Amino acid sequence: MASALDRIERLIDGGGPHLVATVNPEFVMRAQKDREFARVLQAADLCLADGNGVVWAARRLGCEMPGPVAGVDLVQPLAAMCARRGLRLFLLGAAPGVAAELASRLREANEGLEVNAHSGGPEAEQDVETLHRIHDHHADVLLVAFGAPAQEMWIDRLKNRLGVSVAIGVGGAFDYLTGRVPRAPRWMRQARLEWLARLFRQPWRVRRMAVLPVYAIKVMRSPK
Ligand code: UDP
Fold it and tell me: How far is ligand 1, taken at its centre, from the CA of residue 147, in Å?
């Protein structure tokens, strides 16, 4: 987490726009057949390993990786960094009211933090309104919670019009951080069973998660 934050800080200092992706096994599997998504991930300035599935694969394939940095765990330290550095944060996505609720929680927890929010959506009809809100706030750092791959494709499409230094796709992070979707208990996370808790609480994920065994087999068959 410390080195991820350090890298993000350096991206911000370098001006924008930069894309940061929080990659999980579902991203990897989708990118195998979705060339546009693969291109966007390849072009990202930083890809973080969102969960143990990616850390396991990376290590197995000979890549050094200290541990996962989930999008949901990144939001609070990032907000603290924004408050400390006087950077302006914008939360985009999730159901109406969710991002706004998280913004007020972050404001309470981080004195002086300039944060604003908009639920918006990834559809092109919403672009004008969304861009207006982001520009109006003079945002430096943008968190986008439209779910993958919509959030990464949206950032890529509007990258040069956002006016931010860094845009980060954070998936369902706003839902977890406002308690709309409970996170797995600590013991389950430590036992690397967060996926099981997620499946239990959101059974509709079963179709999306069906790719996980295929992912594991592909990784095991990949040359090191
Ligand atoms: N979402 C949204 N607009 C959309 C579709 C989804 O704001 O058109 C939000 C949704 O409310 C949720 C997030 O995107 O907060 C996706 O969460 P999910 O847990 O599916 O993302 P993951 O972390 O699995 O990519």
Answer: 4
pTM beyond cutoff 0.90: yes
Across 41-103, the runs of DSSP E, i.e. the strands, are 46-49, 88-93
pLDDT digits (tens, 9 = 90+) for 16-38: 899 999 999 999 999 999 999 99
Ligand 1 atom with the smallest distance to the CA of 122 is 8
3-state secondary structure of 141: strand
Query: Which backbone phi and psi does 114 adopt, to 5 degrees?
Result: -95, 105
Closest CA to 171 of 14, 55, 25: 25
Ligand 1 mean position to 191 CA, how many Å? 25
Segments making up each domain of the chain, as ranges: 17-181, 182-215
Q: Which fold has domain 17-181?
A: Rossmann fold (3.40.50)
